[in-house]
Amino acid sequence: MSKSKVLITGGTGYIGSHTVVELINAGYEAVIVDNLSNSERFILDRIEQITRVKPTFYQIDLCDKAKVEELFSTEKDIDAVIHFAAFKAVGESVKEPLKYFLNNNLSLINLLEVMKAKAVNNIVFSSSATVYGQPDVLPATETTPFQKALSAYGSTKQMGEEILEKVSAATNVHSIALRYFNPVGAHKSALIGELPIGIPSNLMPFVTQTGIGKREMLTIFGNDYSTPDGTCIRDYIHVIDLAKAHVKACERLLEGKSESRYEIFNLGTGKGTSVLEIVNAFEKVTGQKLNYKFGERRDGDVESLYAETKLANEKLGWKAELGLDEMLSSAWAWEVKLKETVDK
């Protein structure tokens, strides 16, 4: 029996690259498409170093539909698609909403139109806990009502899910939307990890870059929230656990185990950790002191958000296994390795 072929859009990105590794390890054939707007080509070599398999790669912008059609004509036997490719900086999306609506929604629509034409009927969608906004009740479950999105990024994820739900109802497409909470950490080899281009928009690379001296100071956005220490609370999940959930989602689709054409799963640990707790835990795990200060609240940030993960545990057969210490130590090992590479 030949291996199932999975197309991974945004496959050289942070979560995409870790998922490619887990797919290859699970025996899938991986085909990557990425426009390299927020990732680096050398990640392909790193994936090969880890897995001893060089994935097929296409440098394509999914907003160019003709290129997407060409890709599917070349790779004729794609069994499933995992769609990561999207702009994802919350703060930037507040300032440049049109950039986000155009890129994130058009890329998904182009992909679905070509999938329909080529009879590729399985897609796993990279969604986000940001779809919930600030829920009235925590933890957030898959049935928690959406609040009005606080950022254009959040809006594009809400719209992406809406598009998938309607397309799945009207066609043969079976889709699974995975709502991630806050992915952190890196592969144990320290060969791949979070690699933001420019100023990071996520907490963890800002923490590690400050720890190693790339950045002078970490600014914690707001210390006057109604949380125990005044800083925002999030559900941090190790990127490897997250990547493994995508493999489970692919299996579910390809084995015909979905209970409906459109399914949703939360991916988190079910535990909330504050920004200040992350900073203190980082100092403890790595022995590095962090320069940090408190700043104003940031537009688009919600106060507190963590997951109920029972559905993914029971239906996907998946559970987050790696704890905060592993998240922080692996993120730090990746940062140290990056510095060594640059210093050579």
Would you kindly provide a written description of the structure presented here, covering whatever features stand out?
It contains eleven helices and 14 strands. The chain is an alpha/beta fold and 344 residues long. It has a domain of 211 residues: NAD(P)-binding Rossmann-like Domain (Rossmann fold), CATH 3.40.50.720. The strands form four sheets. Strands 3-2-1-4-5-6-11 form a seven-stranded parallel sheet, with helices on both faces. Strands 12-9-14 form a three-stranded mixed sheet. The protein has a two-stranded parallel sheet with strand order 7-10. α1 packs parallel to α2 and α7 packs across α11.
What keyword list fits this structure?
Rossmann fold; 3-stranded mixed β-sheet; globular; 11 helices; 344 residues; 7-stranded parallel β-sheet; alpha/beta
State the gist of this model.
The chain is an alpha/beta fold and 344 residues long. 42% of the residues lie in helices and 17% in strands. The protein is built from 11 helices and 14 strands.
Draw up the topology in text.
Blueprint: E1 5-9, H1 14-25, E2 29-33, H2 42-51, E3 56-58, H3 65-74, E4 80-83, H4 90-95, H5 97-117, E5 122-128, H6 152-170, E6 174-180, E7 182-184, H7 203-212, E8 218-221, E9 233-234, E10 236-238, H8 239-254, E11 262-267, E12 273-274, H9 275-286, E13 292-295, E14 304-305, H10 310-316, H11 324-343
Parallel strand pairs: 1-2, 1-4, 2-3, 4-5, 5-6, 6-11, 7-10, 8-13, 9-14
Antiparallel strand pairs: 9-12
Helix pairs in contact: 1-2, 1-8, 3-5, 5-6, 7-11, 9-11
